[in-house]
Amino acid sequence: MNLEEIIQSAVTQSVKTLYNADTEISQIQIQKTKKEFEGDVTIVVFPFVKMARKSPEVVGQEIGEFLLAHYPVVSAFNVIKGFLNVSINKSHWIETLNAIHSDALYGTVLPDEAAGVMMIEYSSPNTNKPLHLGHIRNNLLGHSISEIQKANGWNVVKTNIVNDRGIHICKSMLAWKLFGNGETPQSSGLKGDHLVGKYYVIFDKAYKAEIKELMATGMSEEEAKKNAPLILDAQKMLLAWENNDKEVRQLWEMMNGWVYAGFDETYQQMGVSFDKIYYESETYLTGKAEVERGVDEQVFYRRDDSSVWADLTADGLDEKLLLRADGTSVYMTQDIGTAKLRYNDFDIQKMVYVVGNEQNYHFQVLSILLDKLGFAWGKSLVHFSYGMVELPEGKMKSREGTVVDADDLMEEMINTARETSQELGKLDNCTEEEKNTIARMVGLGALKYFILKVDPRKNMTFNPKESIDFNGNTGPFIQYTHARIKSVLRKATEQGVNFGTIVDMQLEISEKESYLIQLLSEFPTVVKQAGEEFSPALIANYEYELVKEYNQFYHDFSILKEENEGLKQFRLVLSDSVAKVVKSGMQLLGIEVPERM
């Protein structure tokens, strides 16, 4: 039984004894005591005032006296208006620390078959450009949410849908065919995804030039966009692809192969992976078949131009295109097909799509369409909608070549981390190999933590300079603290100091030390809440709070120089437990922590 359960049981019994009244657990509100008041936990007494027919202050006093008399875990109390602040016996905190220290999986649970499968889709790149800063937030959120759900007992399948077909892919292909002169990743020295992205930008520039020329002849901008030779040729190429034209398919396979090799490098550097990858080129036909079934069953309808639509006006939405007049499919068609294939492949209890908030409408529609097609799981899909990420300079546009490339950003972060660490003396006495490893850990840790500490629903600005700081709410601050603790523990081991189970339960420990244990005891609750809310930010900010408190403790108290052997052992166990929770929490964020710095 954890402390909250103990207090809930104690309060229930006190109310029953004092006022002959039954209470629901939901009526018992327990909070952490604010730092300006004495105590560890605060009980809100207002819910019991009516049944007691006494003032809040009196009710608080009476419940406090009952707890003090009957529950050894309570060592003292005070009442501030309608709030009962309770101090917990120091022996309880030592017992709690022993339990935390001995639990290898503390704060997490192993996947449970009965929990079923949660499939989490993230990344979802297009094969016409490299991954960029927006993809970084998507991948980091998807990976972290997957780890957090695993820690809450779910069997997680991490999945990716690669958008490897469509008009945008044909634009890159056409530009390479017209302007590429046979350029390859090998001949250019460019990563394959960068090379293909280069031709996507080239297409856009040439397309805009054609629009300008057509407008000069008197066409409206809208007419020019529709009739520019390049866009017409791209549309023909898409139709040829769907008709299995051999030449077009060979070009497509070659250029996509370049992109996949590039993506794999980026994913590996980022530290993310997938259990199953689906490709739009393999799922869209299933989607088209489902749409045609919907037409036959009069769920959808076909217009005179042969395009297929869903009328969602009765659902408070508009009409949604599902198949174009020429028979080619749209994103929605592909997502219907992918969803069906996934549920055929896995026994999915919960399907989570990690996709930016600009796609809220898309997933609202997808859920309705799947339900209309008779799939029982249609309404239960979860769109994890997150905010956009920008740089201080503003928005990015991939077709104009103004995006922040993921590879370049990660490389810049690693280089900056090395320079900063070197300047601060963090890499002194490290071998060259250790310096490279630490620079990579710190650079990527800074990037990941800065992005994940923000409420995922909010738009955010990523500031590289702010993220690499060894003070404040940053990844490097937490990483350095972990390395500092590990250094202390190594020295203790070298000195032959034992820091196993604490035997002396009557040690006089300080308020700061008991507060640190209280923070440690909250880790399982934070992990559970992060799973329920799909919020890595809860883990990130808990980690910062824990590390900040530990650093104050480290500054104020002796550890290895403590003369009282019992206290020395206690502080080493406390330090070791903090390091364990720091490492475990950072792993849930996909962040490595160094053993030395």
Features:
597 residues, Gyrase A, domain 2, Rossmann fold, Isoleucyl-tRNA Synthetase, Domain 1, 5-stranded parallel beta sheet, 4-stranded antiparallel beta sheet
Instruction: Indicate the CATH architecture of the largest domain.
Output: 3-Layer(aba) Sandwich
Profile the largest sheet: 5 strands, parallel
Strand content: 5-15%
**Tell me, what is the CATH class of the largest domain?**
Alpha Beta
The CATH topology label of the largest domain is Rossmann fold
What's the CATH superfamily of the largest domain, by name?
Answer: HUPs
User: Helix count?
Assistant: 22
| First and last CA, distance | 39 Å
Query: Gyration radius, to the nearest Å?
Result: 30 Å
Q: Per the principal axes of the C-alpha atoms, what is the gross shape?
A: globular
Instruction: List the domain count as a whole number.
Output: 3
Strand arrangement across the biggest beta sheet: 7-6-5-11-12
Low-confidence stretches: 395-401
| Percentage of residues in helical conformation | 55-70%
Classify the secondary structure makeup into a structural class: alpha/beta
Q: How would you portray this structure in words?
A:
With about 600 residues, the protein is an alpha/beta fold. The protein has three domains: about 5-90, Gyrase A, domain 2 (2-Layer Sandwich); about 120-400, HUPs (Rossmann fold, 3-Layer(aba) Sandwich); about 405-590, Isoleucyl-tRNA Synthetase, Domain 1, CATH 1.10.730. Helix content is about 55%, strand content about 10%. The chain is built from 22 helices and 14 strands. It has helices at about 5-20, 45-50, 55-70, 90-100, 135-150, 165-180, 185-190, 190-215, 220-225, 230-240, 245-270, 280-295, 330-345, 360-370, 405-425, 430-450, 465, 475-495, 510-520, 525-535, 535-555, 565-590, and strands spanning about 30, 40-45, 75-80, 85-90, 115-120, 155-160, 275-280, 300, 310, 320-325, 350-355, 380-385, 390, 460. The strands form four sheets. It has a five-stranded parallel sheet with strand order 7-6-5-11-12, with helices on both faces. A four-stranded antiparallel sheet has the order 1-2-4-3. Strands 8-9-10 form a three-stranded antiparallel sheet. Strand 3 and strand 4 (about 85-90) form a beta hairpin. Helix 6 packs across helix 8 (about 190-215). It starts with a helix and ends in a 9-residue tail after the last helix. The model is unreliable at about 395-400 (pLDDT under 50).
